[in-house]
């Protein structure tokens, strides 16, 4: 993913190396996919004290969610988290 496009303050689409994909929501999950969005590998595993991920909406951009703290389980749990919106 190269960028997130907004229209009227809400998520409108994402732009990838293959073109634009229209959508009404985006979940940014840290971990393996971070390299695609930020351009570099993080080399860290994000976690919370209770090992339960934190998933929350960004109030300023309706349709944008941040998901973090998968404690190394993002490959298994991350895709399911995208369906929460």
Automatic annotation (TrEMBL):
One matching Pfam family: DAO
Ranges for domain FAD dependent oxidoreductase: 40-84
Q: Which UniProt keywords apply?
A: Oxidoreductase
**InterPro entries assigned:** FAD-dep_OxRdtase, FAD/NAD-bd_sf
Q: Name one GO cellular component term.
A: plasma membrane
Gene Ontology MF annotations? D-amino-acid dehydrogenase activity
Is ATP-binding set as a keyword in this record? no
Q: Does the keyword Plastid apply?
A: no
Q: Which GO terms describe its biological process?
A: D-alanine catabolic process
User: Which family is it part of?
Assistant: Belongs to the DadA oxidoreductase family.
Q: Tell me the protein's name.
A: FAD dependent oxidoreductase domain-containing protein
